[in-house]
Amino acid sequence: MSKHAAGPLLGLLRLDRSLSTPLHRQLYEELRAAILTERIPRGERLPSTRTMAAELSVSRRTVLDAFLQLFAEGYVEGRIGAGTYVACALPDDLLQAAVPSGDPGPSSEDAPARLSERFTRQWGALPPSFNEWLFPKPDERAFRIGLPAFDAFPSALWKRLIVNLGRGLQEEFFIRNDRAGHGPLREAVAAYLAVSRGVRCTAGQIIIVNGSQQALSLIAHVLLDPGDSVWIENPGYFGAKGALLGAGANLVPVPVDSEGLDVEAGRALCPSARMAFVTPSHQMPLGVTMSLSRRLALLEWARATGAWVIEDDYDSEFRYSSRPLAALQSLDTTGRVLYTGTFSKVLFPGLRLGYLVVPPGLVDAITTARLFADMYSPLLEQLLVTEFIQEGHFERHVRRMRSLYAERQAVLVEAAERDLAGLLEVAPAESGMHLLGLLPQGTDDQAVVRAARQHEVRVLALSRQYMDSPGAPEPRSGLILGYAAVPPADIISGVRRLGQALQSRL
Q: What is the pTM (predicted TM-score) of this model?
């Protein structure tokens, strides 16, 4: 820019002395905007600081401060003896991704990534819609399983606990944590489990984890070698299948009947299995409770063979006809049971926090494995849950939810009897957060699931929870219906839409 071109440039700049923004900052922003829009071209010379100060009626210091900021950020550059120029390469250029020219080459669809065999075994069979099923739209809760009642959670109380906790945080909380979890939380969990579930343990046996899914993965990686056989309920929980397959286990599907896992069938199929996974209090997905004789038989098999038993107690708090049953772990006298539970299904799923109760001899090994997984669970969430339990809110919340879920289950059963008669047989259950609906023999329940999605209803096909195994009976056809997160009015409308889907398929 020539010395005589200062006038046109300075005519672009607008400084407003009525604003609270300092004049040097306004000048910097005006110059930067003019450079980025190329009203001042790249490589153009700027007026001297003295000239600019005089023309704008500001101090030279104001102009110098603006120029220094532009220098620091790379918008202008100095040339010895020649003045100040707009940079030819602006810093904003580096923030824009280069657009390749010519043939973009093969797309990801043309050249898919080579996936590991382990991943393919573990998750490759999941349907494309699985992620949508896990994370639905807010208005599509009917009839997702595993979701608690968001509308009844004491969110105002939770927010107050967050605020109070933030005020009292001390420096040690920013730098200290324990791989096994926050000590007071472990003590609170041990006390709660002793009273509510009959679990026999000390706080030292409890490991706080990021949900029960992480607990399963830690157990599998610590106690199983690739190729080890594991009994798993058939039908059973898909999350357990994934965690065990991810550790290289050989899964042995063991049938489930009205008394729970058939221990004698397991002995016949694979007597030397290294581990068994069970949901004895409320079998997932059939909802049956493992009988006392089966529990004792399972523990005897574990004692005699040196096997381990994983007890997943995922929704045992919600029993409606009587007090919650004592845990399988409470009957274990030889230290073969690892017990896991979760806060995510009791409070809210965004709280990825659960607990694992292990025999004393396994604490060091599992906490070491935890170190190389993610070290420990976030401390803030642990502190919040500790306060929630210690102040008595947790037990009150569980009591309220037990009553609320019983009411919602009754609404679902009544609506199904009225609107789904002859289409889907839905019977009440003594516990849990979901019900099982049986379809007429020969019905393709996966086709029904797809039809239900067209009517904005999310259900799970019972047949998908079975594993193929020699001599196993044909999978039953049915739907798994979660009701805990669905208000009564939505349950009624959801049943009607499900009825429309069923009529289109049957």
A: 0.75
